[in-house]
Amino acid sequence: MTENLKKIKKCYGCGVILQSANEEEVGYVPANVLKRDDVFLCQRCFKTHHYSADKLHSPVVTLDFMNLINDIKAKNAVVVYVVDVFNFESSFNPEINKALSGLDIILVANKFDLLPKSTNETKLKDYVADKVEREGLNVKKIIVASSTRNYNIDELLEEMAAFHKKGDVYFIGAVSSGKSSLIKTLLRNFKNETSRYITTSIYPNTTLAVQEIPISETTTIYDTPGIAINNSLLGLAEKEVVKVIVPRKEIKPRTYQLLAKQSILIGGIARFDYVDGPFTGFTFYFAEGIKLTRSHVKLADKSFNNMIAHKKTQPISYLVTGVQDLDAFEFTTYEDKKYDVSWNGLGFVSFKGNGRVVRIYAPRGVAISYNESKI
Ligand SMILES: Nc1nc2c(ncn2[C@@H]2O[C@H](COP(=O)(O)OP(=O)(O)O)[C@@H](O)[C@H]2O)c(=O)[nH]1
Ligand SMILES: [Mg+2]
Which pLDDT score, from 0 to 100, does residue 8 have? Predict the structure, then answer.
């Protein structure tokens, strides 16, 4: 569902939205210039500044990881692919998916405890199954689990038992999806009756530190380092900010009834504008420490910058010193369904209804997505 998502062009210098309708108004760029993909500045900033728009990212799946994956393929081993249900869109990463294609996969949708108790597990599973099918992954089983709550870990053990007769089991997934925690919980339910020890060593032909956990004389679980997602706030923000944005316990959804032209400022790092449509409820799923502030679209730029300047919100990151550091995206709903818009690594907003126009602001480099609702 990306066909009706459009990127709003903003000036990387002053943050205003670029437009070619009125030369007297802020953000003016001639129409033929605005059409180009490499235009990042309004005419005024273009004349007074010199900016470089560095958008280069390192790849998600590195050569080292590909070597590991090739080895898994050669051994015909099983993969436990761990994704984080709170950060589903960022942890279920297209590059990781591509690397895993053709392998036998048990998919663990981990951190279920973070979603509200009312969450329908079957619906979530169906949602994941649909995504898995679209990606063409060879997933044998989807398990909705929580390593911290020891929820459905027995199911994972059973599934692994059915498979590991075939060979080794590799835990793969994005940084912080919970691979190591899952294995720790697994081991609590599992006795090492072998004469082999748990070791950590550099995986052959790579620089990856991989932990080997023997589960029989011949079979081993491998805990691999997390794959860093380059378009997630978790990978871009400083440690203190990551601490605030990662939820520790069940999310308490916060619902705002909004009129068109109202705006919610998400800490000092993101923003959600309700551009157009009827009075609608928007539910925000973010860690408790993230302060949400209601504003009006007209005042939002100023409030946002002020809150950052006077440290009146939480979190504030070096990534965002003002609205000029946010990219904006806009989309319109065309069906009477429930939707989620998500910021990779940060959280998501759910709402329902046709004909709603919303604008999503994210720190530059952080991917956003929108989907039919997963919960
Ligand atoms: N709420 C919750 N947090 C979890 C769960 N599993 C892992 N975590 C947390 O997520 C973070 C990353 O976990 P870790 O196992 O190190 O992830 P890895 O990078 O995939 O090995 C840690 O802070 C864990 O406490 C879970 O099921 N629920
Ligand atoms: Mg780990």
Answer: 77
Q: Alpha-carbon distance 175 to 232, whole Å?
A: 10
CB of 20 closer than 6 angstroms to any ligand 1 atom: no
CA 267 – CA 269 distance, rounded (Å) = 5
User: How far is Cα of residue 99 from the mean position of the Cα atoms in its chain?
Assistant: 18
Q: Which residue has the tokens 């009827």?
A: 278
What's the one-letter identity of residue 176?
S
Banded model confidence at residue 193, pLDDT cuts 50, 70, 90:
confident
Ligand 1 centroid–CA 183 distance in Å is: 11
**Domains along the chain with CATH numbers:** 63-223 (3.40.50.300), 237-372 (no CATH)
Instruction: Using only the alpha carbons of the chain, give its radius of gyration.
Output: 23
For residue 61, the tally of other CB atoms under 10 A from its CB is: 18
What number of residues does the chain have?
375
What's the DSSP call for residue 16?
P
Q: Residues with Cβ < 8 Å from 248, sequence gap 6 or more?
A: 287
Lowest mean pLDDT among 98-102, 106-110, 169-173, 227-231: 227-231
Ligand 1: residue of 65, 153, 176, 182 to mutate (most ligand atoms within 8 A of CB) is 176
Nearest bound ligand to CA 183?
1
pLDDT given at position 142:
98
The residue type at 368:
I
pLDDT band at 164 (very low <50, low <70, confident <90, very high): low
Question: How far apart (Å, rounded) are the C-alpha atoms in residues 283 and 264?
Answer: 11
Cα distance between residue 265 and residue 326, in whole Å: 12
- Can you tell me which atom of ligand 1 is nearest the CA of 171? 20
Which of 224, 234, 246, 238 lies closest to 61 in space, CA to CA? 224
Closest among 322, 308, 246, 281 to 87, alpha carbons compared: 246
The residue whose two tokens read 């919970």 is: 178
